[in-house]
Write a structure and sequence with these properties.
Layout lengths: L21 H20 L5 H8 L3 H4 L1 H23 L2 H20 L4 H15 L2 H12 L5 H28 L8 H18 L13 H23 L4 H28 L17 H31 L4 H29 L1 H20 L7 H28 L6 H35 L13 H20 L1 H8 L10
Helix pairs in contact: 1-6, 1-7, 1-8, 1-9, 4-6, 4-7, 4-10, 4-16, 5-6, 5-9, 7-8, 7-16, 8-13, 8-15, 10-11, 10-16, 12-13, 12-15, 12-16, 12-17, 12-18, 13-14, 13-15, 14-15, 14-17, 14-18, 16-17
Amino acid sequence: MEQNTVSPNSRDAVQAPQPRFRKSMLVILMIASFLCLFNETVLSVGNTAVMKEWGLDYNTVQWTMSGFLVAMSVSVPIAAFVIHRYSTKAVFVCSLLLIAVGLTLNAHSPSFAVLIVGRVVEGLGAGLLPSLLFSSALKLTKPQYQGFVTALCGVIIGLGPSFAPLYAGSILSAGYNWRTLFVPLSIVAVVLLVVGIFLVSDISERSSRKLDVVSVIESIVGFTALVGGINVLAMSLSSWMGWLLSILGIAVCFLWGRRQIDLARRSQEEDRVAPVLNLAVLRSAPIAAGMGLIVLLQVANMGLAVVYPMAIEPGLRISAFTSSLMLMVPLLISQCFALFAGTLFDRFGAKATVLGGICALIIGFVLLAFAQVSMGALVVAAFATVAFIGVAFALPTIEARMFSLVKPEYIPDVVSGAQTSMQVGGALGTTITMGIFSASFAARTANVAGGAAAVTGGQAYLSSFATVSVVLAVVYALSLALAAVVVKGSKKPTTQR
């Protein structure tokens, strides 16, 4: 498969020896990555208890999630530099230590402020692990299994946020306090930390370049403002603070991006500080298009994970448990297809999986646009499953395609870029899909006496989600142009890099 022209500076790159315990190291990294994303949504069903304990409103308690995501969006862009600069074990230990400290603070929170601090500390640690997992996994396995390994890592990370609510719900239903949720997780984090000290070896290509402090400050301000602003807008599109933060975030991120490109260019000419994230990889059209597609696919993910359950529960008059099953079952089915897509990528390349996944996503949203209450829960769930499969088919193979275009030492930069795109896409997806759904529902209930509270039939909810589905179907139909760029020139993978 073709390579990008991006190449490391030979003065800096130091190839690390292969570890003795490859499989054990990979398993530890996968479990740790599952844990860090599991923590993202572990408190989602416990927020009601948190609100009651401290007398909080919904907008305030949502920062237990937003604080985690904002902190994660800060550490994700610098993950590539950290992986290049420090040993694999050092990055792993730092990440797990932050997660363990955050979980411990959460388990003993005397106030809401301490809980938020714990969530932020968790998010800072969680932002490093996905990049470390992908870059390490691709170095620990053979190139001919690149698609399957990428899909497997994506499944491990993707299932974490999905299983967390079930875990939390079972503990809270047993009568335990919400703080109890974090006790077993903190123990697991400490165990992984100790085991990782012995089994995680250094496999990174170490660089001696120094960190650019200005870039770090710009990334913290830019991504914090952008993701935070988008999360505020998700609560209220009329919030002036949300718009101010979003505009500030876009402006600072633009300056940050320009600085990364400039630093990458100058670092090839003389010894200077390195960019936090080497955006030179975006000179490759397939990689740039792939990053754009990842943002768009995260919009679909948020629509399916956040708005879809809000529509079907009152729309089909089902219980919260049934609603969670209608979300979990399609998700689990789609993850099996993700592994299948990875295998197809290894055998035939990216064209079938990426283009096929986008087409399945379009079909899924078109079907959801025609969903009716009379069809029943099983039919609606089947429609959603098609959309889930589309995302699962396309997303990991887009990443695998991008990884195949760069030399191994540049994989952390591509991974960090992809993870950053996911963070931004996730935040945008929640705001966009919730905004469309809310506006559509308000329009459908505007002429009903008593407003939304008087709606007794479920079709208004399904029809409002149908509006979301139509918009997304059109967006993904247009995104086929980006997909064509991603797969252009894609051939059957070779066994050599």
